[in-house]
Amino acid sequence: MNKRTPTLVSLCVGLLAGSVWPALAGELHVWTSEPAGFNTHSVWYDDGFEVTVVDTQFTPAIAEKLIADIHKETRSPITRVIVTHPNPDKFNATAVFHNAGAESIASAATAASLPGVDAYKRNFWVKVAKSFSEETYPRPEPIQTTFSGRTTIKLKSGETITLIELARPGISSTQTIVRFDATGDLAVGDLVHYKTHAWLEGGIVNGKPKPDLEGWKADLKELPGLAKGRVYGGRGEFAPVEEAVAAQITYLDKADTIVADYLNALGDNAKAEFDDGARAQQHYALIRDAVAKAFPDYAMPDLVSYSVYGLMMQKLAAR
């Protein structure tokens, strides 16, 4: 599914004969996968001369649908794909974009973390969930171009896109945001799920989940100082920066409290309860229900039951 944002300045400043006039702003689109791809958004930006895609989608087949839809919408070639953070739905389909002639870009920290994340997730999807075989699970290719801190990309129209590596771990172990400088809009991956439940697993570090909610909130607090447009997260709806940040911080604080209170209610039995796989799944479902009750208008509550194990295991280990 492809959407154009309603607040775009179209490419009305054209190329006059013999002289180049940079466009005021290109068109920002959002393509969303079907539920099998976790309703994941890929933002793509067409400046009238080239297309920049943010995040690859979970599988090559889904990425191919994304690319096909882009080609239906524009004649501009896809020249780059940017990976915002090391979660599989952001990087698994790099090979598809490379084959299409696009350059992959990520922070050096994100690029370095991909093999470890891939190994962890491959083990889950192949050996635990058994949704793929070793042969059918995606094989992402390495990132081609990396940066550290901040880098600005000049588009063929004369516009710029700025990639900013945030200081702390966010949803994952590393976090990049993409600022479309002509509009002040941000593409941030799963750092923000506006009106949609969050993925609470944490980054995969040394083969284990490592949530950092304080780092996540610190990253969010950076956003209002970096841009004044809208935030385009990895799932859910879109909102002005200040509104999106406030809502996400409120959500994280409440979810953290719910998990802590649930653990405390189990008392000394907590470790034994979560050591039992079947009972642990029942507890995660109850936590999902509690978070869903706190945020009744939020979509995709199952994201909580699938991911909250990371936050719960962290709290158990700290007891």
From TrEMBL:
Keywords: Hydrolase, Signal
Signal peptide positions on this chain: 1-25
Source organism superkingdom: Bacteria
GO molecular function, one term: hydrolase activity
One GO term (biological process): antibiotic catabolic process
Pfam families: Lactamase_B
InterPro entries, per database record: Metallo-B-lactamas, NDM-1-like, RibonucZ/Hydroxyglut_hydro
Signal recorded as keyword: yes
Residue intervals of the Metallo-beta-lactamase domain: 38-232
This protein's record includes keyword Hydrolase: yes
Coiled-coil regions listed in the entry: none
Family: Belongs to the metallo-beta-lactamase superfamily. Class-B beta-lactamase family.
Official protein name in the record: Glyoxylase-like metal-dependent hydrolase (Beta-lactamase superfamily II)
Organism: Rhizobium sullae
